[in-house]
Amino acid sequence: MWRTALLSLLLLLGGWGVGSWLTHDFQVWTDEGARRLEVALRPVPAPPVQVDGPDVTAATLPGLLAGGGVTIADFIYTDCRSTCLSLGSSFQQLQAALQADRAAGAPAAARLLSISFDGARDDPVALRDYARRLNADPALWRFVRVPRAAQQQALLDRLGVVVVPDGRGDYEHNAALLVFDTQGRMVRVFDIEERQLALDYARHLARQQAPGTAS
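Given the sequence above, the corresponding structure tokens read:
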């Protein structure tokens, strides 16, 4: 009987150990949750991919991010009729909040950046038209693409963005708000429904990383 009890205890401890390892000490239970925890613990530097877009002069994504302070980014494509509509609506609401900050005399806590993963079709002209449809304020909200396919895939892989062509010219993709710090590192990932949380975090990070502020 004691052998049965000992075996049961060993199995229980073994299961606990595996569960703890797989869930980062039971802090997360999904792959996406694990990814977000990893990003929070170990920020991910944006790779030096080349970008272009309307009124964008930076040659690389890190250069663009470094010049814009704290950035909230999303991944879209201009022909999207599903997930990107929700992302566009979320960014419009974030833009309105940042415009209200500016109208109140406070500096904008963050900038917004939409990155197209359909670089072959979303040239700067297409991105400009898309920005106009969304009434994007160019001082707050920029649009870019990664024109080189290999670099585009490298960026998606580095940031954990999943994009799957559906065979009809459209894509299935995950949607999130990615927060980058002033060093061009992805430091947090939020659901699109968590836009206020993403904005509050961006405001906090902007204050924390302001020149002359101890971090």
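The domain at 44-208 is CATH 3.40.30.10 (Glutaredoxin). Try to locate this feature in the token string yourself.
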